Amino acid sequence: MRFTGARWRGLIFLGVGIVVLLVCALGGNHKAAAAGKTEMQVFAASVMTESFGEIKRHFEKTHPEVDVKLSFAATSVLRFQVEQGATPEVFESADAKNMEALVKKGFIATKPLPIAHNRIAVIIPAANPGKICSLADLTRPNLALVGCAADVPVGAYTLEVLGKLDKSGKFGKDFGKRVKANFHSLEPNVKGIVAKVMLGDADAGFCYASDLNVNVAKKVRIIPIPEKYNVLASHYIGIVKGCPNAKLGGQFINTVLSPTGQAILQRNGLIPVKPVRKVVGAK
């Protein structure tokens, strides 16, 4: 197909429009929200969807002048957005690695605080089409497993667990290598893993223990990972440098770390932190 000058101009304008939209999204448009409320943005790992949704509702009740905007994605994706200029008040990371990278580059204004811990879980569809009854079964040929890439925290944690299981020598020769060979799909975030297993589009998947809420638990089964081979996945939170309202960000973080916030996290399958520290100057 040949493009005329007018068609090229149309494509250029379309490209510029897309760039503008991306800049607005990444830069975090912090205009005052509807009804005169102040908008505050929170970036959080997908695993926190249910927990932070509940914390948002609690925070808005105690701060009626604030409209909390939540953005969920893989931590590595959210980190990239901050590196490209996004300035949410709060950044929550599902691991230390991504948070430390932002700290090192000067994007985090406060010392990151741990807010909760998690574990890795192996789930299979309730109908169990792959006939998986143990971890050793994950090495059988022709299974379709699902996970995340290593740059996504849950993917990195999964590789760490597989390394421990492999090193133990209790699950067959080359256990880790054979399990990895069965990965047919790498999802952008942990919610994609859970969705595929629930729908029966994968024989098994590696997710967080906290993803196993009531609705998910009805549609999947769990293959236990012995605690000594599992990992303690730690979540961290901090205020983004240059954000419009660091004080509000600190107040949100303090809510996450409060007894109410920690109870919400625990109710959603996460392990609360002790002792609880708070952001100074966020009253």
Could you characterize the architecture of this molecule?
The protein has helices at residues 5-27, 49-62, 75-83, 96-104, 153-168, 175-181, 190-198, 214-217, 246-257, 259-267, and strands at residues 38-45, 66-73, 90-93, 113-118, 120-125, 145-148, 183-187, 204-208, 220-223, 233-239, 271-272. It has 2 domains: 28-117 and 234-272, D-Maltodextrin-Binding Protein, domain 2; 120-229, D-Maltodextrin-Binding Protein, domain 2 (3-Layer(aba) Sandwich), CATH 3.40.190.10. The longest helix is centred in the first third of the chain and has 23 residues, at 5-27. It has 10 helices and 11 strands.
Question: Brief description of this entry?
Answer:
The protein is α/β, with parallel strands linked by helices and 283 residues long.
Any descriptors?
elongated; alpha/beta; 283 residues; D-Maltodextrin-Binding Protein, domain 2; disordered N terminus; 2 domains; single chain; six-stranded mixed β-sheet; five-stranded mixed β-sheet; 11 strands
Helix segment tally: 10
Low-pLDDT runs of 5+ residues are 1-32
What coarse outline follows from CA principal-axis ratios?
Answer: elongated
Structural class: alpha/beta
Roughly how much helix do the residues carry, as a percent range? 25-40%
Q: According to CATH, what is the class of the largest domain?
A: Alpha Beta
The average pLDDT is 89
Strand order of the largest sheet: 2-1-3-10-4-11
The major sheet is characterized as: 6 strands, mixed
Number of beta-strand segments: 11
Overall domain count: 2
CATH superfamily of the largest domain: Periplasmic binding protein-like II
Q: Give the radius of gyration.
A: 21 Å
User: How far from one another are the termini?
Assistant: 62 Å
- In sequence order, what are the helices and strands, one letter per element? HEHEHEHEEEHHEHEHEEHHE
CATH topology of the largest domain, by name, is: D-Maltodextrin-Binding Protein, domain 2
The CATH architecture of the largest domain can be given as 3-Layer(aba) Sandwich
Strand content: 15-25%
